[in-house]
Structures are given as C-alpha cells and as structure tokens.
Specification:
- The chain is an alpha/beta fold.
- It has one domain: Rossmann fold.
- It contains 8 helices and 5 strands, in the order βαβααβααβααβα.
- It has helices at 13-24, 39-44, 46-71, 81-94, 100-114, 130-140, 150-165, 186-201; strands at 2-7, 27-29, 75-78, 122-127, 171-176.
- Strands 2-3-1-4-5 form a 5-stranded parallel β-sheet, sandwiched between helices.
- Helix 3 (46-71) runs parallel beside helix 5, helix 4 packs antiparallel against helix 5 (100-114) and helix 4 (81-94) crosses helix 7 (150-165).
- The longest helix is centred in the N-terminal third of the chain and has 26 residues, at 46-71.
Length: 204
C-alpha cells in the first residue's frame, strides 16, 4: 500500500510522515532536502536554477515511486511526483522563472514518466494558510528558506487548492493544520490517526 502526504512548503509533511511511519511501522520515503545540490542555489537565483531543480525532484520522486512499486511494503511518502508537475513547475513558468522551452521539455518528460507509475492508494493533503506556513518555516530555521516570499507561498497555495479540488487519482484525506499541533499535542495527532485509520481500513 502506498500513502503519500502532500502540502505546501512548511505545512508539516515531513514531520507527519515520520510520525505516521512510526505509529504504523510503515516504511518512510522522505523528500531529498539536505543533500539536494540545487535547492540553496535555487532560492538565491530562481530563474537560473528552476529547471535544474525541478528535473532533480522529478528524477528523485520517479525513483521513489519505482522503488515503492517494486518493494511490496506499505510505504508513506513525503510529497508526490504530481505536485512537481501540477504546482511547482507551472508556478515557476507563470512567474517568468522558467522559460517556455524548459517548461514544455519538463512537462513532456513528466508525461512519459507518469505512464509508468501508479498514483498513491491514499493521498493526505495538509491544508494551511500563509501565516501557518510562514511560522513553521521560520521555526525550522533552514537558511536557504529565508528568501521565500509571501507571494510565492500564496501562489503555491492557490495551485494546491485548485489541484486538490480536481484530484481523482485515488482516495483523498484533507487535514486542516491551522488549528492543530500534531507535534506537541498527542490528542491532535490521535485525531489525525483516527482519520487515517478510517481511510486505510477501507483500502485492505
């Protein structure tokens, strides 16, 4: 079984992935951040490095999905390959930070890759407003994220909401994280686990 967590930068995907993996004894596949050779350069010079970064993520997530398919274990994944194609790459193109040529090349490659993969059995979407995202980004203190603008996060949020409103590739669970603290409050985490339990039980 393949469960994936989607959401904007700072929504809590990585943390929840780890917590659910521990609770259910699932294998966790995390997004490559610390060892990403493009991320720091991208946030300082987005137009120059946008295509390189998106290709790196696309390659990394395609490998993750391939490994999940071949592994046979229940896996929870931090961010999906669909978010790159439906949210981050088109946003960069619309902002003038990725050329039309590079964007079309990227989308062509994604379409080819998509024909070889299967969507998650369950997608968990973490919905958060901008103030929540900014607070959590500042709290984790990654230096390269200090340059992320409110406008950039807002554009991503709009695209996330549009994507989720039309999502039909599998089961979907939406969790509003603005008024909960699943890291420090066991009751809040328990509420999420109850919701996940209801979805997962229907998948077996």
């Amino acid at each position: 079984m393949h469960i994936a967590i989607a959401g904007n930068i700072g929504s809590g995907k990585t943390t929840l992935t780890g917590l659910l993996a521990k609770h259910y004894n699932w294998d966790a596949h995390f997004e490559v951040v610390d060892d990403n050779p493009y991320l720091n350069d991208f946030y300082h010079e987005m137009e120059r490095w946008s295509f390189n970064l998106q290709i790196y993520f696309l390659n990394s997530r395609f490998k993750q999905v391939s490994d999940i398919r071949d592994g046979g274990n229940t896996v929870i994944q931090d961010r999906t390959i669909y978010e790159d194609s439906h949210i981050f790459a088109p946003n960069l193109h619309d902002m003038g930070l990725m050329t039309k040529r590079d964007f079309e090349n990227y989308q062509s490659l994604f379409s080819l890759m998509e024909s070889f993969i299967k969507a998650p059995d369950l997608l968990i979407y973490l919905r958060a407003d901008i103030s929540t995202l900014v607070s959590q980004i500042h709290r984790r203190g990654r230096e390269y994220e200090n340059t992320i603008s409110i406008d950039y996060l807002s554009r991503l949020n709009e695209r996330y909401e549009a994507w989720i409103s039309d999502y039909s590739k599998g089961n979907l669970l939406i969790i509003d994280v603005d008024n909960i603290d699943f890291v420090n409050n066991p009751e809040d985490l328990g509420l999420i686990i109850d919701k996940v339990e209801g979805q997962v039980n229907g998948l077996f």
